[in-house]
Design a protein that fits this description.
It is built from five helices and five strands. By secondary structure, it is of the alpha+beta class. A five-stranded mixed beta sheet has the order 2-1-5-3-4, with helices on one face.
């Protein structure tokens, strides 16, 4: 099996690894890097549980080959908290009860983080559109939308 030397930034730290050319980013994150916050849901790019940020934009890591991250910046849910303090979007999901069973939550949070970086004051429709590639099977999305609006308001202060 062919392998490639991969150099990229993962959660603000430089990584140098040799990875199989067919290894998915989600598998690299969970198995090689030990970052299990990124979840494997549908394994086909339909649920969004595996969402990470690549160069600041949301991407399904189950559809992304790890080798394509050469010289890129990858952020997982583990990157958001600083010094043990939850980020604004993490706190909002907690306070607004945006997490039900919690399985989709890391992907939802990363999609919301990417959305708020691109659009710091999204409308409810902007949030629905920005989060459309993430599925929650437990909720009607009302609390998720409220969580994103709460984080946007906090970040806008």
């Amino acid at each position: 099996m062919a392998k490639t030397h991969l150099t990229f930034s993962l959660n603000g730290r430089q990584r140098d690894d040799v990875v199989p050319d067919n290894m998915l980013l989600v598998d690299f994150l969970r198995e090689t890097a030990g970052l299990t916050g990124t979840k494997i849901g549908c394994d086909g790019g339909e649920c969004g549980a595996c969402t990470v940020l690549v160069d600041g934009s949301p991407r399904h890591s189950c559809l992304t080959l790890a080798v394509t991250m050469q010289n890129r910046d990858v952020e997982t849910v583990e990157s958001l908290a600083e010094n043990g303090r939850l980020s604004a979007i993490q706190r909002a999901f907690h306070e607004q009860l945006g997490a039900q069973c919690g399985f989709c939550t890391p992907g939802m949070i990363m999609a919301a983080e990417g959305l708020l970086r691109e659009n710091p004051s999204p409308s409810a429709d902007d949030i629905r559109q920005g989060m459309a590639s993430n599925i929650c099977r437990c909720t009607g999305y009302v609390k998720i939308i409220a969580a994103v609006q709460t984080a946007a308001a906090e970040l806008g202060k």
